[in-house]
Design brief:
Pfam families: FAS1_DH_region. The protein contains 5 helices and 5 strands. It is α+β, with helices and mostly antiparallel strands. The chain is globular and about 55 Å long.
Amino acid sequence: MNREDPAREHPAAPEEAVASPLHRGLTWEELPVGLSFRTGARTITETDFINFVTWAGFTEPLFLDASDSAAGHGRRLVPAALTYSLAEGLVIQTLAFAGTGIAFLGMDLKVRQPVYVGDTVHAVVAISESRATRNPSRGLVVSTIKVHNHHGDEVLEYSPARLVRRSATAAD
């Protein structure tokens, strides 16, 4: 490396150059049934809990009164809506749908076990349905997303249906 003149090793890009995205999400063709991936993990903090409960209006004692929340559980219970929101955020952070996701159409959600403040969760995404739509520029993808805690227990499962862009060649 030439420390005196770094431009010799890395010439400047022309001014008219346009930056391209560092990552493009997966197209419908790249999301076949059976494809699966794991997200990163996230620990649910007391701050996450308080912010969500306050913002979302979960004003029942089960969530606002720490002693009531812990009654029967021993620890502060997290709303399933917060667990789902964090899991969906972890899915989005994988960039699987970056620039290719068009719409979230709906989902089925099942709570399997309670989640508590201090738990660390991650999600495993498996494509369970994938089909073309009448519009040749998009396809429908349904996935089964299983959320696990740091003990490996499945705590939540949901199955979102999403419209996803097809590759440019498929749309032509």
